[in-house]
Amino acid sequence: MSNNVLLIDPLVRGAPLGNKKDVRALSFLRAPWRIALDFALPPRCCGCGAIVDEVHTFCIDCWRTIEFIQGGCVQCGLPLANTDIEHCAACLAKPPRIDRTRAAVTYDEITRGLVLRLKYGRKVGLAKTMAHYMAPLLPRDAGDVTLVPVPLHRRRIWQRGFNQSGLIAHELSKRTGLAVEHALVRTKRTPPLKGMSRKQRRRAVAGAFRARESANLRGRTVVLVDDVLTTGSTAEGCARALLRAGAERVEFVSWARVVRPAHMDG
Known about the structure:
The chain is of the alpha/beta class. It has helices spanning 20-40, 60-65, 89-93, 109-119, 126-134, 154-160, 164-176, 198-205, 233-244, and strands at 5-8, 13-17, 100-106, 145-149, 179-180, 184-186, 209-211, 221-229, 249-257. The chain has two domains: 17-65, no CATH class; 68-263, Rossmann fold (3-Layer(aba) Sandwich), CATH 3.40.50.2020.
């Protein structure tokens, strides 16, 4: 049997290609098709839909309104304006279980829109956009690192059809080469957290997560992946289960972070 690779292309469907000459020929044929497609479907701003130069980017007007998070508390990542201190007061008073928390942007009108369109509008391509900005936040030179998406309850999966955190984690894996392991299970369906105090949220998620028996986490650095960080109660609940399962270190990365309580959705 030939070792040729079968490439499926809209113009040359099912043509077996086995040498560089054939590949160059196909690339020549595909070029006009790609130009036509880019003309008909140009890249759009992820915030407002205006035409932009590249995919997964924002127009100038949206870019100016987005607050990209830089610096902050070295542990929880909370933005610390006009100060040189490394740890926020909360982390000094009671260090969290999560060793390092990072988010790409603050949760506001535009960044919230991406989250809602991904979760409820089924615009799954936005997971790739979020991963584009989250990838630089992942740990470097941290040894054995595994990405673990924050799980949804099975009923929520049935209703939505996918876990947005899982989609983002797999896009991060494509960009970084880090492995993804669905190591956590959500054992109970928690009520909507909107309107709850921090203490009420902690109670609501208590015991809601456990590690799968098949999870291989011992001695590893685990990076929890989610779309939004609100009070951190869900992340802490996940971290508790991961540490019990043998993880050496737990970090957290998300697309957006609620900095202003009025923006909490739950």
